[in-house]
Amino acid sequence: MRLTTPATPAILDVDTGLDDAYALMFAACCPGIDLLGVTCAAGNVGVDQVVRNTLDVLDMSGAAEVPVASGATGPLADDHRSADHYHGKNGVGGVQLPRSPRKPVEEPATEFLYRVLSESSPPVTLIALAPLTNIALLLRAYPEAHKHIDRIVWMGGARRYGNVTASAEFNAWSDPEAAHEVLHSGIPITLYALEPFYTVTVSSQRVAEYTSAEDPRIRTIGEMLTYSQTRNAGETRIPDHTASCLGDAGAVMSVAAPELTTTSRLSVDIELDGSLTRGRTVMDERTSHTDTQPNDEPIHTQVITEVDYEAMEQLFINTVIAGVDTWAK
Length: 329
What we know:
The strands form 2 sheets. A 9-stranded mixed beta sheet has the order 3-2-1-4-5-6-11-9-10, sandwiched between helices. Strands 7-8 form a two-stranded antiparallel ribbon. It is of the alpha/beta class. The radius of gyration is 18 Å and the shape is globular. The chain has one domain (8-282, 299-323): Inosine-uridine Nucleoside N-ribohydrolase, Chain A (Alpha-Beta Complex), CATH 3.90.245. 34% of the residues lie in helices and 18% in strands. The protein starts with 7 loop residues before the first strand and ends in an 8-residue tail after the last helix. It has helices at 18-29, 47-60, 84-87, 109-119, 133-141, 170-174, 176-183, 194-197, 204-211, 216-231, 249-256, 309-321, and strands at 8-14, 33-40, 68-70, 124-128, 149-155, 189-192, 201-202, 244-245, 261-270, 281-284, 300-307. The protein contains 12 helices and 11 strands.
């Protein structure tokens, strides 16, 4: 498919593990995304490794001009708990990426975000693929930043059940206080939850082709996808259980190609206290609110409920794999 909409000015906020890497590749290569910068937060791995992975992926994808800022080393209220058991110690499945010679900008993520937002004439879309710590800290330090934000697209939460616990999705569970602050900020939010997250994949046949490709960059992508394929084995929410999940990349594709998504406007909040449900995103899908108290204030959020996952797979391949020859070597 061809993208026909104007490029969306965007900043990605990442905790670069495997699926953030796929998202960065897509954003770097997609003509529908004007990538103004990337901010990093602890999540899948510690923030220093997140920065390292982010720089490496961007440079490998021909986007060495995109600035990267280091941010939160942990959540607002708890200690950092990584997902390196899933993403591997280096966050990208042990795959050795070509090393970028770059360093992050000197500004911390909060100041970098505010400066880039303020300097952009059209409002910017924040695509948050990590715990929302950096975004919450931005809004605490610079409440006026909301004037420069078109919307926040967050890969977080779940309509049904979680992945890190029975109730919670990893990004929401990692910093529910930050998620609560952002959800209550009044900024328009689009939620890309676990239900579409697991459906956007690359087939096992294509993964095998990439792993044996002549181009070393495609082989590197194939090795990462192979690791994802292994780690997701048995996940019943993946339509083809042998495929490799692209995860966060789907959230970026939803910005570039919104026609591939179906959304519902729901009230969404997050549980902060439950011993079994901390970090759970609670989505009110009732058609009747006769029991709602008069002082209840619903938080209306656009929730992506379905995606055309076959078209998204093709979009990723057309944008990333087919575009490798255009990457700076």
